[in-house]
Inverse folding.
């Protein structure tokens, strides 16, 4: 089994742009996504899909 490099796939926090404080924790590949990640995910507090942006 290949050894996983911690800095190649860091854990990141995605925060909701709706201002509800909802967040998701995920990993990303720095080689494929060197910029900040933006994903549309479900925010249960507003009960719809909104953009979640990577926070540091």
């Amino acid at each position: 089994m290949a050894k996983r490099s911690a800095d190649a796939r860091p854990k990141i926090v995605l925060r909701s742009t709706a201002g509800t404080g909802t967040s998701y924790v995920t990993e990303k590949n720095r080689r494929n996504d060197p910029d900040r990640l933006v994903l549309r995910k479900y925010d249960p507090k507003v009960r719809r899909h909104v953009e979640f942006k990577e926070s540091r």
User: Anything to note?
Assistant: The radius of gyration is 13 Å. Strands lie at 11-16, 23-27, 38-43, 48-55.
